[in-house]
Amino acid sequence: MRKKIIYPAIIALIAVAAFQACKKSGTSPNSTNSAGFDRVGMLKNLSTNIIVPGYITFQASVTTLDSSVTAFNASPDLTKLANLQATFKTAYEKWQAVSTFDFGPAANENLRISVNTFPADVTQINTNVTSGSYNLASLSALPAEGFPAIDYLLFGTGADNNAILVQYTTDSEAANRKAYLAAVSTIIKTKTANVVSAWKTTYPATFLAASGTDVGSSVGQLTNELNEDFEVLKNFEIGIPAGTESMGTTFPTKVQAYYSKISLHLALLHLQAIQNIYLGQSAAGNGLGFDDYLVSAKATYNSGSLNDAIINQFATATAKLQALSDPLANQIATNLTGVTAAYAALQLQTVLLKTDMPSALGILITYGDTDGD
Amino acid sequence: MLNYIREKFNSFTKTDRHIAPLAVLRMAFGSIMLVSVVRFLLKGWVYAFYIKPRFHFTFYGFDWVRPLGATGMYVLFTILIITSILVTIGLFYRIAITTFFLCFTYVELIDKTTYLNHYYFISVMAFLMILVPANRYFSVDVFRKPELKNTYVPRWAIDIFKFQLFIVYFFAGLSKLNYDWLIAAMPLRIWLPASSHLPVIGGLLTQLWVAYVFSWFGALFDLSIGFLLINSATRKFGYLLVVVFHLATAWFFKIGMFPYVMIFVTIVFFSEDTHRKIIGYLSRIFSKRDTITYNTGSYQISLAPKRIIYTLLLLHFSIQLFLPFRFLLYPGKLYWTEEGYRFSWRVMLMEKGGTAFFHVKDPRTGKKTEIINSQYLTNFQESQMSTQPDMILQFAHILAADYQQKGIKNPIVTAESYVTLNGSGSRLYIDSTVNLATIHDGFDHKKWILPFHNNN
Q1: Which value, in Å, is the radius of gyration of the alpha carbons in chain B?
Q2: Cross-chain CB nearest to A358 (options B48, B353, B379)
Q3: Are residues B6 and B61 both part of a single domain?
Q4: Does B124 lie in the same domain as B23?
Q5: Whether the model pTM is above 0.95
Q6: Same structural domain, B274 and B174
């Protein structure tokens, strides 16, 4: 009886001694830090070289868009319309690079759903234009504002630019329509300015300080939003229009940028942007990203490296999208097989990014306690 | 042999022990429950887990358990707060602890998404506390009705808690004796580096050997701590281990109140002298009058309730000893199938993640649709569901019912689920060709779970 108790006690004692010993030597972390991945370094690269420059470029494009709206509204003509359409396309392109970062400052502004809830609710937009009174701050107004609303207003209100111009010149609701266009543009500009201002001042410090891996940490939020955003790409830009969620009934008009017909172009930019975040790739070169993190964790997939699998899947998905052409809405009608093949490639990447990556890194992506010991 | 058992049994039922450990346990348990429930409320989890979700994953056989709506849920949690206070101070004790047990267990039964061994443990402890007269000493009940006071209780009234705690630790230890934990140092080799931002020891957590030390120490701790606490010679050292171990885990992992609950309730292992000192100390804080100078009789209950209690205890501990082994009745890798996984004190053994795509097919037209899970489930529910076969089946049934209502007769529901277990990399989890809508849940082996092949 006595021995039974003493034996485990001795083992436990030795284990404790080892445990305590390692606690002590931990006071000089520099000597042992080499094997660990530099998470703060990754956050620094992502914020300094990708997030902040991305937002600054986006803000510049949004400001240009807003001044072209003002110029157009002052004296609408075909040249100014074409110029406005071009600045709109640029701003919509730049948005793809920052769509992912819907946490912190962007979450405070509800930026993603405010600027890019699509398909646009054309009925609501037209009702708003006719009545001239609307509250664009309400949740129900989300499909009547942002880029999708401008997409409709600038490209969908007439068969060609001559017809569209009429809506802003001689049409009985021209004044209201111009006011609506300006109101929508102002919201995008204001919200973006607020987000950029936070990222230019206090937020980077907060971002770098939350260097853990739980839900509230920067890596946790980034991983979560990367996946949310990837689902926007997979489901809303490709899947839903192609009928994957509606018993095969297709909805070509539900694509992103339906009226300006740059849906596929934007989807490719979006995928590229997400890949850049994953790789830590920017104009400053290839810095620390999730790829390096996974390599340092020696994450595996199907007897190979998880990082290789993810990089290959980015390439596959990109190739499948590149095999299509704009307008994407037409492709859904004529080449549905090609569109669903792209969707399937994105689907597999969802699994790798949403399940394999967080699990290999021990990143918590849901709230609630876990089981303790 | 029979005589030996009878002797042992008599020593448990006839030997009187001082009641002080029970009174301390009552206060420790009640107060830590108060903190836990208030914390749960403040985190907004009542809304997030029991009000917001449109659907819930009930336990097999408990489909009748439903959330009570916003008002009802908050009333339920208010009752939990009030009864925790009543238990702590020992007022209307039996009603309070019984109500606490019923309400707490009801909440836990609403949705298995939130299942934690820690919550199961609280239900078990509350159940055992219903059976003992923990209010007959140093309590408001005694202050109110001095004739209630007892100084002695039969030995079993205290030892059942020690036995229960012993079971919890020992089975937790047994479950760690496997390849993943001991040889592969999984999942700690994933989890510890995730905490590398912690001050002082953060850098150390990225070292592989540290994951091994923690794994082996954890297993040895769980297996031996019960012995160390029972034996008076090693008790103080054992308790020090308890405190250090649980505080360390609280620091490294998101495990909420569990470490503190264990630090509080393991006090019950200490001798009655220690507990009398604790009570003496507390009574000096609360009143000038020393309430423990006079002795009263020992706790007596009539034969009929005694028989009921003994039967309940025998039943309870038989179940406790059987449940952790029921996994042996199922084929396949336990962590993968999770058949017989819950209610067995298996904690922190798996890093498991999954993504599940559900498809609903109209058998008439052959057309199919993919489900956006978030239109039905919260993120938390979705992530738990993706890796647990019984929840995948439940969700398939929710979808079948929904599409039936939408006018599709006998919809075919399939799940394409990818799961990664302890760094294995994701692979197909269940047979994606099986129509889950026609499969009934039960305790028999789920043949549609694909076998786990580790190809790394």
Answers
A1: 25
A2: B353
A3: yes
A4: yes
A5: no
A6: yes
CB atoms within 10 A of CB B288: 6
Q: Is residue B258 part of a domain?
A: yes
The pLDDT value given to residue B303:
79
Classify residue B188: in a domain, yes or no: no
Q: Which amino acid is at A85?
A: Q
Task: Identify which of B404, B358, B405, B406 has the alpha carbon closest to the alpha carbon of residue B382.
Answer: B358
Q: How many CB pairs under 8 A join A and B?
A: 211
CB B421 within 8 A of CB B454: no
What average pLDDT score do residues A212-236 get? Answer: 93
Domain that holds residue B379: 351-438
B120 and B156 belong to one structural domain: yes
Chain A environment of B227 (Cβ under 8 Å): 4-5, 8-9
Structural domain contains residue B456 = no
Q: Determine the Cα–Cα distance for residues A195 and B133; give it in Å rounded to an integer.
A: 60
CB contact under 8 A, B455 and A302: yes
- A interface mutation test: which of B116, B117, B204, B372 has the most A CBs within 10 A? B204
> Quick check: B116 and A29 CB within 8 A?
no
- HEC string of chain A equals CHHHHHHHHHHHHHHHHHHHHHHHHCCCHHHHHHHCCCHHHHHHHHHHHHHHHHHHHHHHHHHHHHHHHHHHHHCCCHHHHHHHHHHHHHHHHHHHCCCCCCCCHHHHCCHHHHHCCCCCCHHHHHHHHHHCCCCCCCHHHHHHCHHHHHHHHHHCCCCCHHHHHHHHCCCCCHHHHHHHHHHHHHHHHHHHHHHHHHHHCCHHHHHHHCCCCCCCCHHHHHHHHHHHHHHHHHHHHHHCCCCCCCCCCCCHHHCCCCCCCCHHHHHHHHHHHHHHHHHCEECCEECCCHHHHHHHCCCEECCEEHHHHHHHHHHHHHHHHHCCCCCHHHHHHHCHHHHHHHHHHHHHHHHHHHHHHHHHHCCCCCCCCCCCC
CB A238 within 8 A of CB A342: yes
Q: Looking at chain B, which residue has its C-alpha nearest residue A210?
A: B197
8 Å CB contact between B335 and B421: yes
B162 and B303 both lie in a single domain: yes
The answer to whether residue A9 scores a pLDDT higher than 60 is: no
Half-sphere exposure of B273 (CA within 13 A, CB side): 1
Number of domains observed in the structure of chain B: 2
Give the chain B residue nearest A349 (alpha carbons): B355
- pLDDT score recorded for residue A4: 52
- In the predicted model, is pLDDT for residue A59 greater than 50? yes
Q: What is the DSSP letter of B430?
A: B
Cβ pair A235:B45 closer than 8 A: no
Q: Name which of A306, A263, A295 is nearest A93 in CA terms.
A: A263
Distance CA A24, CA B201 (A): 8
- Is residue B150 located within the same domain as residue B261? yes
Which residue is it, tokens 């229009």?
A241
pLDDT value of position A16: 42
pLDDT < 70 regions, chain B = 1, 287-296, 454-456
Whether residue B239 lies inside any domain: the answer is yes
To the nearest whole Å, the CA of A290 is away from the closest chain B CA by: 13
pLDDT-derived band at A355 (thresholds 50, 70, 90) equals: very high
**Residues B309 and B399 both lie in one domain:** no
Confidence check: pLDDT of A2 > 90: no
Query: What is this model's ipTM?
Result: 0.89
Compute how many other C-beta atoms are within 10 angstroms of the C-beta atom of residue B308.
12
Chain A residue with minimal CA distance to B368? A247
CA A306 – CA B147 distance, rounded (Å): 70
Instruction: Choose one of B292, B327, B362: the last residue of a domain.
Output: B327
Asked if the Cβ–Cβ distance from B426 to A347 is below 8 Å, we say no
pLDDT band at residue A241 under the 50/70/90 scheme: very high
Predicted local confidence at residue A29, as pLDDT: 31
